[in-house]
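Hey, resending since the last one bounced:
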Amino acid sequence: MEMALPVYHISLSPTEYQQLTSNIWSETFVNSTMQMDGKPFPIRLRYRGGHTRGYPKKSFEIRTSSRTYHFNAEYDDPSLLRNALSFRFFESIRVPAPSTQHCVLYLNGQLLGVYLRIEGVKSFFFRQRKIPVRSIFYAVNDHAGFMINSNSSSTSTDLLSGYSLIRGKDVDRTRLRNFIQQLNIKSRLELFRFLQSRVDTDNYLRWLSGAVLTGNFDGFHQNYTWYEKIKSGKYGILPWDYEGTWGRNCYGTRVDPNLVRIQGYNRLTGRLLAFRSFRQQYKKLMRQHLMNAFTEKRIMPLVHRLHNGIREDVNKDPYMKWPMDVFAGEPERIREYVLKRREYLSEKLRQL
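The structure tokens again:
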């Protein structure tokens, strides 16, 4: 017997509703009330996302007095579960990732359909996981590849044009800017010590293996959270926005399961893997994951549990973009992806 999905009711006054809908690109929050289990509580809400704001089923950022949540429409993903599956997978390979919960959302009494509630990666996220951080950056566009652009004057703002500071001060921006500069200009001799002292390399290589295994082509130059730990002064990384994974891109189009190469992408990845010791560490992690975490036996029970848990409500979703037979076939699509990806990466691992 499947458990019913939690149901959230959002109520907006006519004025607030007008403010929300009159400009879908506005970053301004409107005041509202959300009800769950019969208990109303005040929230602030706005639309979120890039091109997805133009869709009939929109995503929301919702803030309570203490927490931030993203209610994702998952409109382009015919399974509605790729983000949830990816974040659970990252947790299984010991990379911190947002917790998720599918739910049903209503706005002023109107059914909006099935959503994925995603925990916001902010101060509370790190406090809960006992990771003291001094700064948090989101990689918000594809200029977050740790690269100095040789075609520009590389002004200080250029280097950070792919990042949004979520927590921290100007001094933290300066430190990240310096990190990117040093990463690009240090000699090989200096670079190894620099990477060891400034990057949590175990965390980074685990994240890299997760991005490569799930096949997130967009996840190397954007769609990640970059944070600096207080105690060690080292940078860490975690995943964000993993809808374009498991054999489909961020628009839901099927892609070659071997689209993402085993070395991944971006400047920091390239500089790390140029050293044999980091490469060996990465290969060891990959072997472990291919043996334990990234297997049909481990992944498919979770896929079926998530899929079965939302099927009934997806069938009633008024904004479901995909036919139900496509939704029904998604577990098999994901299974095929895992099999083909395992085969490809096992072969490439020998050549790395």
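DSSP finds eleven helices and eleven strands in the chain.

Sorry for the duplicate.
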